[in-house]
Amino acid sequence: MNAHDPPFLEFENVTVFHGEKMVLDSLSLAIRRGESVAILGPNGAGKSTLIKTIMREFYPVLDRGPVIFRVCGKDTWDVFSLRSAFGVVSNDLQYAFTREITGREVILSGFFSSIGLFNRDVTPEMEQKADEISAFLEVDHLSLRPMTELSSGEARRFLIGRAMVHDPDVLVLDEPTNSLDLHALHAFRKTLRKIASAGTAIILVTHNLQDIIPEIDRVILMKNGTFVGDGQKEDLLADGPISRLFDVPVTIRKDDGYYYATGY
């Protein structure tokens, strides 16, 4: 990225309310093109609301000062174009696919932003792309099985495939390892590392330190609707910052590029 290029994602003074409750408090953030970032915080910190605000599912209030929201330097975006720039995988999306839809159909539905195909006009080019993605994610042998017969980890990889059909600049993952056992967690982290190594940037939103793959260098700490830390991983994934973030004394250890909290 050229030093003079605008950030891929930039916003300032973003405040969001749910009813009378303020859930995001004057947030400001800039992420460079190609930069992978982890947003780490406890449950209830506002992480999922932040992602939904980025995706224009929620809107910031305007009476607390001027709001800046830019993608690639642009202030105005068509919502569908915006969602093509970001490939999003969320728990809400996985719940929506708990039905008799095959893994291959899940990937293909990404071309239409739909849940299933419903007589959509699927082209040979789409089919080829879906097959390439399933092979890349190493789930091609499961493509014809319905989502209801897949493990949580297998289903999650098909949802990632759905998010990748438009070759997004950034893959956004909201609490991606919820409900995964150790084997599925290992396979999922391997998949994320493969995606990151292939050049797709990742925004990882999580409350689990061990989700943060070695390819992510920048960590943002979030608590009570605001950012309480933003910097290099090795500086923030340490005893003091993580103890304060989760309000519990912990000891952080590093093993093979991953960080783990112990002692609580």
How would you explain this protein's 3D organization?
By secondary structure, the protein is an alpha/beta fold. The chain has one domain: 3-Layer(aba) Sandwich (Rossmann fold). 31% of the residues lie in helices and 25% in strands. The protein is built from nine helices and eleven strands. It has helices at 47-54, 79-85, 91-96, 103-109, 124-136, 152-163, 182-197, 233-236, 239-246, and strands at residues 9-18, 21-31, 37-40, 68-71, 86-89, 170-174, 201-206, 218-223, 226-232, 251-255, 258-262. The strands form three sheets. It has a six-stranded mixed β-sheet with strand order 5-6-7-3-8-9, sandwiched between helices. A three-stranded antiparallel β-sheet has the order 2-1-4, with helices on one face. A two-stranded antiparallel sheet has the order 10-11. Helix 7 (182-197) links the parallel strand 6 and strand 7 (201-206). Helix 4 packs parallel to helix 6 and helix 6 (152-163) packs parallel to helix 7. The protein is globular and about 50 Å long. The termini are far apart.
Summary?
The protein contains 9 helices and 11 strands. It is of the alpha/beta class. Helix 4 (103-109) runs parallel beside helix 6 and helix 6 (152-163) runs parallel beside helix 7 (182-197).
